Amino acid sequence: MIDTHSHLLDEVFKDDLDDCIKRCKDNNVNKIVLVGFERITNNKAQELSKKYDIFYPTAGIHPEEVKDISDLDYLEDFIKNNKVYAIGECGLDYHWTKETKELQKIIFEGQIKMSIKYNLPLIIHSRDAIEDTYNILEKYKGQLRGVMHCYSGSLEMAQRFLSLGLYIGLDGPVTFKNAKEPKRVAENIPLDRLLLETDCPWMTPSPYRGKRNESSYVVYVCEEIAKLRNMTYREIEEATDRNASSLFNI
Ligand code: NI
């Protein structure tokens, strides 16, 4: 199984990363997309990927981390000089940082263009900004390859992103009892567009809700989606592995 969105590079794993990786292997989680989101974590993703072959590093500028237009020169330089499997995470986030809205849009669009230019998939973050995210992406319809990461919108909106050629990434919230809409999305989107993620250390699934999340817990996301779709765990695992391998070329 593949965790297509992990931040095992976070400080909270510094004392037991080896144990976390062992728990992945014990649960047959054999590949992890290790997601950077600004300068320090982009470097960290490279560093850890050289040390552990389970990791596939990305590089990006998260909307909460935008500084100025030079972010794009930095990132282009970085992806030319390092092996990355995706651009991102990138996108729009108006939840905490509305005041940088205009700069966020510029830095997001720049990363979309880079993903097309370098033929790398995009990992897209969108929080309280779903319409703007869609409108910017739509300009590049026909050229896009990527995933709506930690998707939390409606099924109808998911269908619009699917029509742009994007995948939908689902995480821990799909396992929560009261998560009606994520469950509806999990049940109804085409299986060949679904990806499993953890977004660890955040978004912890049941039965560990409230605790630190880690990549091995992606098995709970798989289990829940299998249940919702009336399929076997193995069928969801195989389908989502195929999707992840094809999108990220891993
Ligand atoms: Ni993330």
Question: Which short descriptors sum up this protein?
Answer:
250 residues; alpha/beta; three-stranded parallel β-sheet; 8 strands; 14% strand; globular
Outline of this structure?
This protein has 250 residues and is an alpha/beta fold. The chain contains nine helices and eight strands.
Broad CATH class: Alpha Beta
Q: Spell the H/E element sequence.
A: EHEHEHEHEHEHEHEHH
Average pLDDT rating: 97
Q: CATH superfamily name?
A: Metal-dependent hydrolases
Helix content: 40-55%
Structural Rg: 17 Å
Number of helices: 9
What overall form do the CA principal axes indicate? Answer: globular
Poorly predicted runs of 5 or more residues: none
For the record, give the distance between the C-alpha atoms at the N and C termini, rounded to a whole number. 12 Å
Structural class: alpha/beta
CATH topology: TIM Barrel
β-strand percent reads: 5-15%
Structure description:
With 250 residues, the protein is an alpha/beta fold. It has one domain (2-248): Metal-dependent hydrolases (TIM Barrel, Alpha-Beta Barrel), CATH 3.20.20. The chain has 9 helices and 8 strands. The chain has helices spanning 17-26, 39-51, 70-81, 101-117, 130-138, 155-163, 180-188, 218-229, 233-248, and strands spanning 2-6, 31-34, 55-57, 87-93, 122-127, 146-148, 167-170, 194-196. Strands 4-5-6-7-8 form a 5-stranded parallel sheet. It has a 3-stranded parallel sheet with strand order 1-2-3. Strand 2, helix 2 (39-51) and strand 3 form a beta-alpha-beta unit. The longest helix has 17 residues, at 101-117. The radius of gyration is 17 Å and the shape is globular. The model has no long low-confidence stretch (mean pLDDT 97). Nickel (II) ion (NI) binds next to loops.
